Every structure is written in structure tokens, then in C-alpha cells.
From TrEMBL:
Residues 26-50 are annotated as: Disordered. The keyword Cell wall biogenesis/degradation does not apply. GO terms for molecular function: structural constituent of ribosome. Residues 26-38 have a biased composition (Low complexity). The lineage of its organism: Eukaryota, Fungi, Dikarya, Basidiomycota, Agaricomycotina. It comes from Leucocoprinus leucothites. GO terms for cellular component: mitochondrial large ribosomal subunit. This is Large ribosomal subunit protein uL3m.
Length: 320
């Protein structure tokens, strides 16, 4: 967890230092009646380790804004809101090579029962949660299973850590080569007969006499699944369940996005642990992560707004 006790009152120091016991108790008390609630892995949460892979969250992209850190530097951020994100199942599948696949199924954004199919109504009723608009699953390690029915909070991600955001990009429709691939185009002066934005020649001579597959040409642009990696979390609002990440994320406003721990950063921390560089397992200022997940019960014991401090030299102070 972020080092809150460095600049917080004494009563907040205690709750920040004992985050593991708080998360474990909250996860055990919020277990539902679904299929995965009786599994021993889901009912015995432990401590986070670099080998652990936690579940992700489903949030809505609310738009972009600006934040100013404690040094007065303006930072563009994207606001993501977690809408009643709950666990609806724990998946366990044995592969052909006898390895076991574990995943946590998460659903978010309540919807009316009249617009939900009977099959999904039975699934949500078995998990003890209201009907949801979107259901996704996140691969996890066996020690990171979460009891069914647990309500996840924005505190699942700690300010200062890095996350990956996954969503469908904005569709641009059918576009030409210049906009789709950044082609230079033909000359804009004399000598070009109404072909300024043309892609030019696309094939060769009689041999091979065809256009190779994958040639960059005009076509449908955007509307594909995009993963933006290594975005730092700058602020978390536990009251409104808001997550402020630096930079832009794919998708239109109010679209559902998937947030997970940054794969590359976590893999780098695992390698640092193998080398004995224990101070470089997590990013600077982050001592621990809520495990197996950040719940609403944990959010009640922490401040409403938690920010990641700036660990750089102020740009407004003259350098000697």
C-alpha cells in the first residue's frame, strides 16, 4: 500500500500498516453463495507476492481532466469510475496438459431485470448479486481467488502503481491511406490531377501480378481492442470510486474499460526479487498491494482521497 503514515494522523497510520489483515477479513466476510465461494483457495487469502497475479476491475471511462501535483505541475489524467463491480464466480479449468487455469469472473454496472436474459438472471442470482451489464474474467493465480459476491472498490489499485487499460478504440469508419497509415500523399502543387490524397501505386509488374496480403491501403479504421500499458495511478477517490490515471486510455466516454496490474512492471518486479533487489519489486513509494483484492470494507478504513506524491525535483526551483 502507499506509504500513508508518512503524512497522515496516527489513527490512519494503524489502518494503513495493517492493510493485509483488513483485506483478508473483508474478503472472508463478503463470501456469497455462488459456485466458487466454497473453494478452499477463495476462502483463505494470503499476502501478496511478486508471483501473485491479482484480478482486475471493470470501470467506465468518464473523460479527461487535469490534476496539479504538490509541486504545481499540471498533469493530464483520465477519470475511471468503478460502478458496483462485484465478483460473480471463480473459474477453474484443467487444460489438456493437466495444468490448471484459474480466473476471477467480475461483473459491473447494474441493469434492470426485464432487460436481462433468464440464463444470466439465474447466474447472477446464484452469485447473490444484482443483474449486470458487463461480465468479464481475469486470469489469476490460485492464491488470488476472491469470494463470490465480494464488492470491489477503487482502492484495489494503489496510487503510485502502474496499470494496463483495455478497451475498444474509437471507430473512424472507412478512411484513406493518409489518415489510416500516415502516408505523405502526392504533391500539392502543379502537375497532380486531382490525386493529392491518393495512395499511389499499390502493386508491381506482371510478376507477381497481384497485391500482397497486408498491404497498407484504404479501409476501415479503428474500432479494435487496444491495450494501453504502464499508466501510473495518480489519485484514488474511495467515496465516488474514481481512479485517476495519467494520460489517455482507449474508448469513448462512458464506455466500459478493463483495468489490471501492469504486466510488464509486475514481471520486472518478479525478476528484481530473483536478483535480490527487494526495494525495486514495486514502484517507488508503494510498499504493498491489497490482496487478494481491494474491497469496499477496506475503503471505509482509509482516507477518502489518496494521492501519489511527486518524487521529482520541483521544476519551479532554480537549479544551482
Amino acid at each position: 500500500m502507499l506509504r500513508l503514515w508518512a503524512h497522515r494522523p496516527h489513527h490512519l497510520q494503524i489502518c494503513a500498516r495493517h492493510i493485509h489483515s483488513t483485506v483478508s477479513a473483508a474478503a472472508a466476510s463478503s463470501s456469497g453463495t455462488g459456485t466458487g465461494a466454497s473453494e478452499p483457495e477463495a476462502s483463505a487469502p494470503g499476502k501478496w507476492s511478486p508471483e501473485s497475479i491479482r484480478t482486475g476491475l471493470i470501470a467506465r471511462k468518464r473523460g479527461m481532466a487535469s490534476l496539479w501535483n504538490d509541486q504545481g505541475v499540471k498533469i493530464p489524467v483520465t477519470v475511471l469510475q468503478v460502478e458496483n463491480c462485484q465478483v460473480t464466480g471463480n473459474v477453474r479449468t484443467v487444460r489438456r496438459d493437466h495444468s490448471v487455469y484459474h480466473a476471477v469472473q467480475v461483473a459491473a454496472s447494474d441493469k434492470p431485470e426485464r432487460t436481462t436474459t433468464k440464463q444470466m438472471l439465474g447466474h447472477f442470482k446464484k452469485a447473490g448479486v444484482p443483474p449486470k451489464r458487463i461480465v468479464r474474467e481475469f486470469p489469476v493465480t490460485p492464491d488470488a481467488l476472491v469470494p463470490v459476491g465480494t464488492t470491489l472498490s477503487a482502492i484495489h489499485f494503489v496510487p503510485g502503481q502502474y496499470v494496463d487499460v483495455i478497451a475498444n478504440g474509437i471507430g473512424k469508419g472507412f478512411q484513406g491511406g493518409m489518415k489510416r497509415w500516415g502516408f505523405h500523399g502526392l504533391a500539392a502543387s502543379h502537375g497532380v490531377s486531382i490525386s493529392h490524397r491518393s495512395s499511389g501505386s499499390t502493386g508491381q509488374h506482371q510478376d507477381p501480378g497481384r497485391i500482397f496480403p497486408g498491404k497498407k491501403m484504404a479501409g476501415r479504421m479503428g474500432g479494435k481492442r487496444i491495450t494501453t500499458q504502464n499508466l501510473p495511478v495518480l489519485r484514488v477517490d474511495t467515496n465516488l470510486n474514481l481512479i485517476f490515471v495519467k494520460g489517455a486510455v482507449p474508448g469513448v466516454d462512458d464506455a466500459h474499460v478493463l483495468i489490471r496490474d501492469a504486466k510488464k512492471i509486475m514481471a520486472q518486479g518478479k525478476h528484481n526479487q530473483a536478483k535480490g533487489l527487494y526495494e525495486k519489486i514495486l514502484p517507488k513509494g508503494v510498499d504493498d498491494l491489497p490482496f487478494p483484492a481491494g474491497t469496499t470494507e477496506l475503503a471505509k478504513t482509509l482516507p477518502t482521497i489518496i494521492e501519489a506524491p511527486a518524487y521529482r525535483t520541483s521544476p519551479f526551483i532554480p537549479r544551482e
